[in-house]
């Protein structure tokens, strides 16, 4: 089995679905944000705060380029698709699955979360704006699965 790249907006369920899918298919699961945090020895929010988003995007690209592993599910940060080279890399090295969630569901799922640097003020506006900007890029994926109002098991099925 080749590499499966799971993409989608914050709160779409990429990490949860990726882990469950990994168990079902007996595949390894790696997460780009976790790898960046390990490599930098700090949290994503600290990287944003101390080094800025541009630096984070460079780490993200560098980490992704190391991840064309066979039989592996790669769960990604919501903004991985902003960088054209990342979209090309995923397309050329595996199957790209977009987990799509309605803005309302994203807002509910991220309501209590203070760890996402891009969602710190005026959440509703931020989510709508970013989702609209990114949607065409997410839709370049090989498959789209709507995750709104569905159980993890159903999404994985
Ligand atoms: C980001 C999403 C986050 C993380 C970073 C930037 C984004 O990951 O990579 O805060 O630009 O959408 P999750 O999608 O796992 O929250």
Automatic annotation (TrEMBL):
<dbReference type="GO" id="GO:0008652">
    <property type="term" value="P:amino acid biosynthetic process"/>
</dbReference>
<feature type="binding site">
    <location>
        <begin position="11"/>
        <end position="16"/>
    </location>
    <ligand>
        <name>ATP</name>
    </ligand>
</feature>
<comment type="subunit">
    <text>Monomer.</text>
</comment>
<keyword id="KW-0479">Metal-binding</keyword>
<dbReference type="InterPro" id="IPR027417">
    <property type="entry name" value="P-loop_NTPase"/>
</dbReference>
<feature type="binding site">
    <location>
        <position position="15"/>
    </location>
    <ligand>
        <name>Mg(2+)</name>
    </ligand>
</feature>
<comment type="similarity">
    <text>Belongs to the shikimate kinase family.</text>
</comment>
<comment type="function">
    <text>Catalyzes the specific phosphorylation of the 3-hydroxyl group of shikimic acid using ATP as a cosubstrate.</text>
</comment>
<keyword id="KW-0418">Kinase</keyword>
<feature type="binding site">
    <location>
        <position position="116"/>
    </location>
    <ligand>
        <name>ATP</name>
    </ligand>
</feature>
<feature type="binding site">
    <location>
        <position position="33"/>
    </location>
    <ligand>
        <name>substrate</name>
    </ligand>
</feature>
<keyword id="KW-0547">Nucleotide-binding</keyword>
<keyword id="KW-0028">Amino-acid biosynthesis</keyword>
<dbReference type="InterPro" id="IPR031322">
    <property type="entry name" value="Shikimate/glucono_kinase"/>
</dbReference>
<protein>
    <recommendedName>
        <fullName>Shikimate kinase</fullName>
        <ecNumber>2.7.1.71</ecNumber>
    </recommendedName>
</protein>
<keyword id="KW-0963">Cytoplasm</keyword>
<dbReference type="GO" id="GO:0009423">
    <property type="term" value="P:chorismate biosynthetic process"/>
</dbReference>
<dbReference type="InterPro" id="IPR000623">
    <property type="entry name" value="Shikimate_kinase/TSH1"/>
</dbReference>
<keyword id="KW-0460">Magnesium</keyword>
<feature type="binding site">
    <location>
        <position position="57"/>
    </location>
    <ligand>
        <name>substrate</name>
    </ligand>
</feature>
<keyword id="KW-0808">Transferase</keyword>
<dbReference type="GO" id="GO:0005829">
    <property type="term" value="C:cytosol"/>
</dbReference>
<comment type="pathway">
    <text>Metabolic intermediate biosynthesis; chorismate biosynthesis; chorismate from D-erythrose 4-phosphate and phosphoenolpyruvate: step 5/7.</text>
</comment>
<keyword id="KW-0057">Aromatic amino acid biosynthesis</keyword>
<dbReference type="GO" id="GO:0004765">
    <property type="term" value="F:shikimate kinase activity"/>
</dbReference>
<dbReference type="GO" id="GO:0000287">
    <property type="term" value="F:magnesium ion binding"/>
</dbReference>
<keyword id="KW-0067">ATP-binding</keyword>
<dbReference type="Pfam" id="PF01202">
    <property type="entry name" value="SKI"/>
</dbReference>
<dbReference type="GO" id="GO:0009073">
    <property type="term" value="P:aromatic amino acid family biosynthetic process"/>
</dbReference>
<feature type="binding site">
    <location>
        <position position="134"/>
    </location>
    <ligand>
        <name>substrate</name>
    </ligand>
</feature>
<feature type="binding site">
    <location>
        <position position="78"/>
    </location>
    <ligand>
        <name>substrate</name>
    </ligand>
</feature>
<dbReference type="GO" id="GO:0005524">
    <property type="term" value="F:ATP binding"/>
</dbReference>
